[in-house]
Amino acid sequence: MTLSRPIVKKKFTALVKKSNNIVITSHYSPDDDAIASSLVTYDWVVTKYPDKKINIIITGGKNTRYSTFFNYNKIKFVPDLSTELTDVDLLIMVDGSQYDRFSRQPEKIPNHSCKMVCFDHHSSPVDKFDLKYIDKDATSASEIVMDVLYKTSEITKDIAETFLLGILGDTGTFNYLKPNQINTFDNVKKLIKISQVQIQEFKSRYSQISQSTFLIIQEYIRNTTFVDLTQNSYQYSFLTQEFIDKNKLSDGETSEAGHIYMAQYLRTIGNYKWGFIATPKKDEISVSFRSLPGSVNVRRIVERLDIGGGHDRAAGSSFKSDRFGKKLNLNFTIKYLLDWITTNKLELS
Fold first, then answer.
1. Same domain for 166 and 283
2. Would you say residue 349 lies in a domain?
3. Three-state SS across the chain?
4. Which of 21, 68, 186, 243 lies at 20 to 30 Å from 219 by C-alpha?
């Protein structure tokens, strides 16, 4: 049974009131919505309950392009969330509903005695939480937090800009909006009125990229391969560990470049309506899929592979060494995916 927003807010408030040490987190390799939903949740909790110990902790590395957003400097980036939960009373997880989206050691998350809350908009299976609110029709976790927790009068200029970061990021500046999501325009209208931003100018503040990021995008383009099938032709690309080591690249830089490559090139080339990228990370190979409407449902691919989840059009997770052992490397991962795609019937949506 899906709880109504007022009931969720009431139950969430009760959990916050009972807790003294609270951690807010989002998925590793955070995108715009992950950062934004973490920050707006933090703002609501710390404004209402300033005497509590409240931290934002995210697995992964810092990305300076978000540095202008209010309270971004409060985020603690760590090697893994699972090591940071000692004595925590309440763990609030946003923009994901599976432990392995937040930690590279997800099996350790339930070992802590803290209560757990989830706000998410993905369609993937949901792990165990004491309170969860999953709205699969929402554009973003940021918009869920806005609709569930905030009154319009509580949204400051700084927080309005943060909400816009999340909503614009996960809608591709409205490119991905569906007919059942048009109420988002009402929220955006409120946020623009409060923040007084022009969208183009606003996005230019955090959309500029570094030379390192541009170098990585070039490498993704250079490594792009097109696979021609009778139906559902696709493309894929990758980074090698040698390239990453040679250029001393961080996970944050490869993640940012990967998102840009997928947005600009992965499903925009004629006749190739879907595809994936593969990127080495510590003890794993990260994979991300994208597709256009009317083509392959990429969420079902990663669910059937049992490596992750996401949306019908955007999904991903990782091939991990604890599952695949010493044979895990980039070549193994790509071959595994190519063989699976060839031998399995792909679901369309």
1. no
2. no
3. CCCCHHHHHHHHHHHHHHCCEEEEEECCCCCHHHHHHHHHHHHHHHHHCCCCEEEEEEECCCCHHHCCCCCHHHEEEECCHHHCCCCCCEEEEECCCCHHHCCCCHHHHHHCCCEEEEEECCCCCCCCCCEEEECCCCCCHHHHHHHHHCCHHHCCHHHHHHHHHHHHHHHCCCCCCCHHHCCHHHHHHHHHHHHCCCHHHHHHHHHCCCHHHHHHHHHHHHCCEEECCCCCCEEEEECCHHHHHHCCCCHHHHHHHHHHHHHHHHCCCCCCCEEEEEEEECCEEEEEEEECCCCECHHHHHHHHCCEEECCCEEEEEEEHHHHHHHCCHHHHHHHHHHHHHHCCCCEC
4. 68
